[in-house]
Amino acid sequence: MKKTIILLLSLISVLVLLVRFSPNILELVFGIKPKSGLSILSQPTEATVFIDGEEVGKTPYESKDLVVKQYIIKLEKDQALWQGKVSLNSGALTVINRDLAEEIASSSGEILSLEKGRGITVVSNPNNAEVEIDGNYFGKTPLSVNIDSGVHTVAVSHPSFLSRSIRAILPEDYNLVVLVDLALSEADLTAVTTPVIYETQQLVAKDTPTGFLRVRDKPSLNGKEIGRVKPKDTLILLEEAGEWMRIRTGEGLEGYVSAIYVEKIQSLQ
Q: What range does the domain containing 152 cover?
């Protein structure tokens, strides 16, 4: 007889002030590169912040003098880690808020950014999460909502996952992009499965700050290193496991690599 699982959905709220930066005369006349801002929050606090491999401080962290480009952000606190790519937009503050955990399935958080436009766009991991804005149901992710500027509360939920609630300010003439990672409820951590790849897919290893890509024995930064691959090495994708890929190297080694450092290149018949 199957056991009935009672899901405990935890609402986690954060008030985020998204700030516009005004261009100045130096940018307009002398062509100085536009700047953008980054604010990073975490639970627990005092997590070490790395930007493109360089340690820059502890959470809560904020900088309003960053060049507009894509960065690799890593947060580390004891045995809990998170790493991801973040693209900063000109004249806007991007906010990262993470609940750190040793296991990926228990980690959650959101990235909030502004781009020219109107409304709110919500994307989630896992997909097809239900979205409520200010208590009104709008549909499932990914979705874009045409909504007036002001203070809004975005609630994202999915069966078997802990829900998240984000309170943010939407400036006029901007689109607020909310990227949400949901954590599995404790009741379902032992039952988590990953999709098996039935069509053989090739991957290619990307450049990394270390010059190589670690292959680990489990999908976690705490996993034991069992091998390394070089940039441009070809790999076979076996399973997709969220932020990790289970792969097989050309030498037959099987293990997990970070998904941000590999790219799908073609399917094999």
A: 15-188
Rounded CA Rg of the chain: 20
Helix (H) or strand (E) holding 123: strand 119-125
Looking at residue 25, the DSSP 8-state letter turns out to be H
**Residues 121, 213 within the same domain:** no
Query: Among candidates 95, 122, 91, which has minimal Cα distance to 16?
Result: 95
In tens, the pLDDT along 252-262 reads 788 889 988 99
Total of domains in the chain: 2
This model's pTM is above 0.70: no
Pick from 157, 140, 125: which is nearest to 242 by CA? Answer: 125
Q: Which of 139, 163, 188 is the last residue of a domain?
A: 188
Residue 156 neighbours by CB distance under 10 Å: 23
Is residue 188 helix, strand or coil? helix
Shared domain check, 200 and 80: no
Cα 13 to Cα 61, 98, 109, 134, 242, distances in angstroms: 18, 12, 11, 13, 24
CATH code of 230's domain? 2.30.30.40
**Residues 21 and 172: beta-carbon distance below 8 Å:** no
pLDDT in tens, 125-159: 888 899 999 999 999 999 999 999 899 999 999 88
Best CA proximity match to 113, nearest among 90, 94, 96? 94
CA distance 181 to 237: 23
Cα 144 to Cα 12, 35, 120, 130, 201: the distances in Å are: 22, 27, 6, 13, 31
Could you tell me if 258 and 158 lie in one domain?
A: no
Q: Are residues 179 and 219 in the same domain?
A: no
